Amino acid sequence: MPDWAAKLRKPSRYKVLYGGRGGAKSWTVARQLLLDGLERPLRILCAREFQNSIKDSSHRLLSDQVKALNLTGHYDVQQTRIKGKNGTEFGFTGLRHNPTELKSWEGADRCWVEEAHSVSKESWKVLIPTIRKEDSEIWITFNPELDTDYTYQYFVINAPKDAIVLYVNWRDNPWFPRVLNEERKRMKILDPEEYKTVWEGKTRAAVSGAIFAKQLQRAYKEKRITKVPHTPQVPVERVWDLGWSDYVSIIMVQRVGLENRIIDFLQDSQREIADYIATMQKLPYTFTKDHLPHDAFMKTLAADGLTIASKIEKLSNTQIEPVPQTTVADGIDAARAAFSYTWFDKKKTREFLDSLRHYRYKVGEDGKVSRQPLHDQYSHAADAFRYYALSFTGADNLPMNEEYVAPRVDQYVASAGWML
């Protein structure tokens, strides 16, 4: 075991290990949990945000370590469980879609959350109070992605008082393999920016392969992600992406002169449309128009005999406008162009911007990048942004692959006062 592993044997509610590749974080945690389960009976939950099958879990890593530590006489490695002769049990689950199964682990002694950078705020809100046995511990391992990721903010930047937080990299692994060291040195020369994240565990501006990475970088550089004031005399329009078990994402926009200003954002799941409307009615905005995707006009999605569109119209008394239909690829092109004439409120749209930084294409098992975006917890806000781009610029009157830079308000206020 590496020297830093001694801290894992000290009692603490949270044990957080983060950093780049090659630090043996997961390998060491797996060994320590197996040894702890050898000393006394423990219920240990191994969790990830997404687990479609046992292949997606840490089951294989733990079973390999059972053999490496010569503990096959103590642990029975089953297809979906690992059980010790003294009653120790390892179970595996995904957090995102298994809240019911999670409740059965209220008596867990340990919970190991692997690849925790992708665990959402909602999943943590369910998991943390579930692991509530006296002296229970939550162990967290991850390679950081973005500095805005909830796990990074909650357990590293604003770490709980009862947390052991360890920054672990390749140089902290006394058995760091030569073949990985060659890969590390090669990336450091060929791609120094990517190297900082992959091998040194530093956060990046957007996830690797993010669809809007360049546009976000430019928006930050041009200071269009800033404090954006709400102009009371200007109406606010909303753009919706609809879901139920998935998120409903709502962008709130003001058109001030030739500028589009995204001043606020609301996102949640498993709430009635009336709840979202009631929440937004408490805001100091005058809503006049709602832009809705085509499925909002389908009666199969209706509640109480109304389509979603008619229900929003009835509750809000706003003008309803369908989003122009086009392909996802054309919508992404429109969204890329829309960055150049859109201003974002840095504070109120933080969750929205974080989703755009994570929005990326699918990658197949063969490593090939698909032309279809990955459907995950970040894609709903990005879909709303696609709808916004199509609704506010007009798919027919703006070149998809050209960028338009709007003048600042003070450049045309004298001649366009009527627009304000």
Write the layout of secondary structure elements.
Elements: E1 14-18, H1 25-39, E2 43-48, H2 59-68, E3 75-77, E4 82-84, E5 89-94, H3 99-103, E6 110-113, H4 121-130, E7 137-142, H5 150-157, E8 163-167, H6 178-190, H7 192-198, H8 213-221, E9 225-226, E10 236-241, E11 247-256, E12 259-269, H9 273-281, E13 287-292, H10 308-316, E14 319-322, H11 328-338, E15 342-345, H12 350-358, E16 361-363, E17 369-373, H13 379-393, H14 409-412
Parallel strand pairs: 1-7, 1-8, 2-5, 2-6, 6-7, 9-15, 10-13, 12-15, 13-14
Antiparallel strand pairs: 3-4, 4-5, 10-11, 11-12, 16-17
Helix pairs in contact: 1-2, 6-7, 11-13, 12-13
What does this structure look like?
With 420 residues, the protein is α/β, with parallel strands linked by helices. 32% of the residues lie in helices and 21% in strands. The strands form three sheets. The protein has an eight-stranded mixed β-sheet, covered by helices on one side. Helix 1 packs across helix 2, helix 6 crosses helix 7 and helix 11 (328-338) crosses helix 13 (379-393). The longest helix has 15 residues, at 25-39. The termini are far apart.
